[in-house]
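USER:
I would value a second opinion on how I read folds in token form. Give me a protein, with the fold worked out from its sequence. Write it directly below this note and I will take it from there.

ASSISTANT:
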Amino acid sequence: MPVLKRFLKILGYVIIATLLTAMGIALLNQPKSLINTSKSLTPDAAYRESIANTALEHLAEATTYRIVGYDDANNDSINHNSILAFHAWLKRTYPLLAARANWEVINQHSLLITLKGSSKEAAAMFIGHMDVVPAPDSAQWKHGPYSGRIVKDTLWGRGALDDKNVVIGLMEAAERTLALGLPIKRTLLFGFGHDEETGGSHGASAIAQHLIKHRIPVAFISDEGFGVMKGIVPGLKNDCAIIGLSEKGFVSVKLKVKQLGGHSAWPNPENATAILSKGLSKLEHHQFASNLEQPVRGLFTEAAPYMNFGYRLLFSNLWLTAPLVKMVLQGGEKTAATIRTTHVTTIMRAGNKENVVPPTAEAIVNLRLFPGHSIAAAMDEIKDVLNDPRIEISTYADGREATPVSAANGDGYDQIKAAIQANFTETVVVPGLVITGTDCKNYTAVTNRMYRFVPFEFSASNLSSIHGINEHITRKQFGKGVEFYMDLFQRL
């Protein structure tokens, strides 16, 4: 008993010391001032007003060009005329850029625009995509998705947030930089793919191969991704600008069962659909391991000083609280997706007549892979979970590994962070993981520094319109994005 008492006493001291240490770390983890440390390099207020007065009209025109990505379709053929018309419109709308920059059409439809700088440093590359997802629910929109309607300083249209806003924002910023005679120190590359929404294999991939073939050095790439997130990060009152350092990979897995079919009047309990259903049930109740490694860890540790004390205590002490943090994040579908590989059954196929037991049944399971979790490892884990040789497992289509994690400092990251701090007041800047796909995945052989951030404000209300109905952006939001890019160009 004395030994047990001594052990419990020591254990109590250890627990108290651990808690005091954790609280001390949280108390010392005070926020740094978010007052702008660097002055905005965009022009004065009068000029910024002129941006707001015309830039949104150009974006509205751009949304009227129907460059739509359909799955399992020959989109190059479908969109050919619209793409070429859009190219011509860009040159008419931005005449200084058309005259001063070198415009190359890559693989018939994508654009690579080179604005030569005075420096011999490797180029800074900005990418976006001209295509959009379909709008089959257009009747439910407040205004037609391709009408280019501006109502009370809000543009409603497909591409307003994904991703013509980036393409036009960059073009506006470059044209205005030239018009003002501002210096172009580092060469700027603008790569605009035409098929990002269907993978980028004809667009961004071709641009990347062109850069490699012609040995064009690229220091870093800036692409779509997160923006200035409002009220989305738990425990954080400030806006939060998230710079994506990596994006998840993806693969679709086919599960197939072949069994004897027959008449539904005398079914075999071990028929194809029953076997497949049991397997899918096992898989749906299995979750891949959670992970708080980079870049997710960076988001929480860098945001922690600006959170209320409860969250600050939690995220300042991941050495102690990681299991609890994982449990909290696993409670939400969006937050869970940031810390692990996810999977979901998206397609099921079996019989075609109500009184015939189907001889085959199959399902497609889509996986989004956390950085460091390979396709091969995920396939092996699925096989172990199913543990049924009657279920054939194969890849349904070509997958893609998660991209490497870029550094959260240095060339590209530092300038983007400084431009955010100068243009978005009281905003916390943190690294993060992009859970959707971008064209960056096609550029991994071009540079190891890829940053996914767009200078537009997002809240729960407008985030839901991306790939949904009533996609929209306000005049103020878009004008601020143009200002950001002008500022960033001057920092390079």
About this structure: The chain has a mean pLDDT of 91. The chain has two domains: 45-232+436-491, 247-395.
